[in-house]
Amino acid sequence: MKMAKTAKNTKKYQKLTNFWAKFVNFFDAMLFPDNIKCIFCGRDINNFEEQPYCEKCAKKLVKNDGNRCRICDEKIGNEAIICDRCQKQKRSFKRAYCPFIYEGIVRQSLLSYKMNNRRYLAKSYAKFIYNYIGEDFKNFDVITFVPMTKKKEKERSFNQSKLLAEELAKISNLKICKCLIKISETKEQKKLNFNERKKNLSNCFRIVNEKEIDDMRVLLVDDIITTCATMDTCSKLIAKYAKSVSVAGVARNILKDENKDD
Ligand SMILES: [Zn+2]
Ligand SMILES: [Zn+2]
């Protein structure tokens, strides 16, 4: 009896949050209409198609540029081709692509995309990734995304990575496929060491629709690449069937901690 009541209340709460999400989206669309305003600060801009942000924000943007690891795309201070971490540990993906560093206005914007349901941002994010990958796009046949558990997706009302992958598929004319599901929640990764992280993650995901990725060159999309551990785990599963796996995200979250492996 008590359980039924709790379930009913959760449903009620869900409806209410979905209502507010729609409400916020409606005002967002009015305040930040597609193709007029800077996606970071809302100032009017001249040519949204060319650059969806204003000159002031352009100065604040931290791009992922300079010498970067050819595998994980993390900035490296020296002239090395592959970073120390990728040299020590073999990645399951071929290459990572991340146009920005996860800080400042990019971080705020991505948080707002996810937490405040600002779905319209996905289009611009996808474009950033598309331009960043550039010529290399010819190396992919199909796009997929990092899944969420059903429960989490319902709570948030959308999967930010899936929406991003859908927009990327539209721009690139590639097919999108759902080849992964998340069957259990990942525990907090921060406090775990590398081996614990791997173990923690490996049981969370499972492959579905393997025929769709059979012998394909797959691009796996997530919003932020914080732990290459997640990308590694998902890529490993996909690579059992696919010809190759590369990964892409809007921003690279550089953790300061030495223990990370990410
Ligand atoms: Zn701006
Ligand atoms: Zn690397």
Strand and helix map with partners:
Elements: H1 2-31, H2 55-60, H3 84-88, E1 96-97, E2 100-101, H4 104-115, H5 121-133, E3 142-145, H6 150-156, H7 160-172, E4 175-176, E5 180-182, H8 194-202, E6 205-207, E7 217-221, E8 224-225, H9 228-239, E9 244-248, E10 251-252
Parallel strand pairs: 1-9, 2-10, 3-4, 3-7, 7-9, 8-10
Antiparallel strand pairs: 5-6
Helix pairs in contact: 5-7, 8-9
The chain binds zinc ion (2 copies).
One zinc ion binds next to helix 3.
**DSSP helix count?**
9
Distinct ligands: zinc ion
Distance between the termini: 45 Å
CATH architecture verdict: 3-Layer(aba) Sandwich
Number of strands: 10
Q: How would you describe this structure to a colleague?
A:
Helix 5 crosses helix 7 and helix 8 (194-202) packs across helix 9. The protein is globular. It has 262 residues and is an alpha/beta fold. The protein has helices at 2-31, 55-60, 84-88, 104-115, 121-133, 150-156, 160-172, 194-202, 228-239; strands at residues 96-97, 100-101, 142-145, 175-176, 180-182, 205-207, 217-221, 224-225, 244-248, 251-252. The strands form three sheets. A five-stranded parallel sheet has the order 1-9-7-3-4, with helices on both faces. It has a single domain, classed as Rossmann fold. It is built from nine helices and ten strands. One zinc ion binds next to helix 3.
